[in-house]
Amino acid sequence: MEIIRLKETTSTNTYAKRLLEDGIIKSQTCVMAYGQTHGKGMQKNIWEAEANKNLTFSIICFPDFLTAASQFELNKMASLSVYDLLKKKLLNEKVSIKWPNDILIENKKVAGILIETSVIGQKLNWVIIGIGININQEEFQPHLPNATSLIHHTGNELILDELLNLYIRLFEERYTQLQKQKFNKINSDYLNAMFRFGIPSKFIYRQNNIIATIEGVNEYGWLQLMTSAKERIECEIKEIVFIL
Ligand code: BTN
User: Fold this and answer.
1) Rounded to two decimals, what is the model's pTM?
2) Which residues fall within 8 angstroms of residue 148, CB to CB, at 6 or more apart?
3) How confident is the prediction along the chain (244 residues), in pLDDT tens digits per residue?
4) Which of 9, 37, 47, 238 to mutate to test the pocket of ligand 1 (most atoms within 8 A of CB)?
């Protein structure tokens, strides 16, 4: 895959979208920036990452083998590819995927993913998979008490370009699984990697404190839980908060 390296941009997702709108990109491409001035997070949040210390990049792809309805497969595949990278670097730490696509080390967030899609009819026209992984940043703003980065676990600095090359290899492996329609494999790996899967835990669901156990994810990517009162819940991201 081609890699476009930028010293700085507003957001690699925005940059990637511009390339697509200009009709310049026709095959899988990675846009990476050593610094972002307006990094975007999920649910209209800002993604903060100190320049030259972290990986911030977006992968443009054209998954014409998926329908728009099955686009959560991309969330699973992308989360697993980042999970694979961290597992390779951190042999003894607990890495997990907090639904839908945050990557945690123990209870702290080390990476996030923002996927943007263009749909035409039932088909995915293009997809931008934006990924931020905290690597060598040692301190975070006080409003992000739950953030961590790789350096806190490896003890030494990592080389960003080397890590990105390794990541691209792992991404391509997972993408090939998806292309070959290995949905069962991706699904079981995702559930195995999932934070708090099968463990009764505390959540806030529609403003109420509950104890529930994650049982899975439905085909649209909604979280499936069983409450301690034996009620089944299927919910979207806006409806539920994990209590960490
Ligand atoms: C989240 O967890 O809220 C998602 C964060 C996604 C951040 C990455 S950094 C590279 C790409 N460009 C952006 O503006 N956002 C994504």
Assistant:
1) 0.96
2) 105, 106, 108, 109, 110, 134
3) 999 999 999 999 999 999 999 998 999 999 999 999 999 999 889 999 999 999 999 999 999 999 999 999 999 999 999 999 999 999 889 999 999 999 999 999 999 999 999 999 999 999 999 999 999 999 999 988 899 999 999 989 999 999 999 999 999 999 999 999 999 999 999 999 999 999 999 999 999 999 999 999 999 999 999 999 999 999 999 999 999 8
4) 47
**Spatial distance between the Cα atoms of 215 and 232, rounded to a whole number of angstroms:** 9
Evaluate: CB of 130 within 6 angstroms of ligand 1: yes
Of 131, 132, 137, nearest to 152 by C-alpha is 137
CB of 56 shorter than 6 A to ligand 1: yes
Going from the Cα of 123 to the center of ligand 1, the distance in angstroms, rounded, reads 24
The structure tokens listed for 205 are 């669901």
Among 130, 126, 125, 149, smallest CA distance to 45 is for: 130
Please name the residues in contact with 188: beta carbons below 8 A apart, sequence gap of 6 or more: none
Residue owning the nearest CA to atom 2 of ligand 1: 112
CA–centroid distance, residue 194 to ligand 1 (Å): 20
Q: How far is CA 41 from the centre of its chain?
A: 10
